[in-house]
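call fold(seq) -> tokens
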Amino acid sequence: MASGNYDLEALRKQARGHLESLRRAGVEWLPAPAPAMLTLAQPVAAAPPATHADVPAPVTVVPAASGDVTVVPAASGELTIEQRRQALQLLATEISTCPRCAELASTRTQTVFGQGGPGVELCFIGEAPGADEDAQGLPFVGAAGQLLNKIIAACGLKREEVYICNILKCRPPGNRTPLPNEAANCRPFLDRQLELIRPRFICALGGCAAQNLLNSTVPLGKLRGRFHDYHGIPVLCTYHPAYLLPHRNPDKKRDVWEDMKMLLTRMGRPVPQR
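ret:
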């Protein structure tokens, strides 16, 4: 047997053994490479280099009758809540070492993926992590986060009942506005994240989040007051909590509450009396 064939066969055996051990341990899916279906019983051509549009989808590990192991992509709609939760964890792990934005990768303390679980009714999307979020690895934990907690509570909800994330997963230096190429680099991750969460409604916080999510250049003032669409999910846009802080525009809290009342009505939830 030629040396190249021997090496390939050894790799096949190692891969089959590894996947079989994962299957016996209860793992039914894991990140898939570029091919739509990968059968380890046959040689596989090398995949092209990944681009910023490539985000691994979950796959199912299926033992074939021959004893070989086949890896088949699974659509998000076919996954259980627990499988989607595990897929979110895998995606967060992948993002934690993301090098796509050199400046952000070199200045961040850690990535800030999101907080919450799949299947929630409402997802809040902000702009990017700040200093507190970069330090703790959680979204909206600083002053703006405390105000967001009050907004959530005023709606009759609890923070653990919603999902919270940002357009970017890394803090921009000096809390500057995300650059277009940074938002583009992070967009496949955001889309996959929302695909796994599958919220019934989305609330975009601030002009940056609203414009990036909706691929729009319309100012926030004109995006407010009506619902938009993200892959069939109703989206309501409102001011970012940081914009409402005492040293900025606290008088806009009334406008945010009007937006929240519109959102709650669309969700079929009672509007609490303030």
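The radius of gyration is 22 Å.
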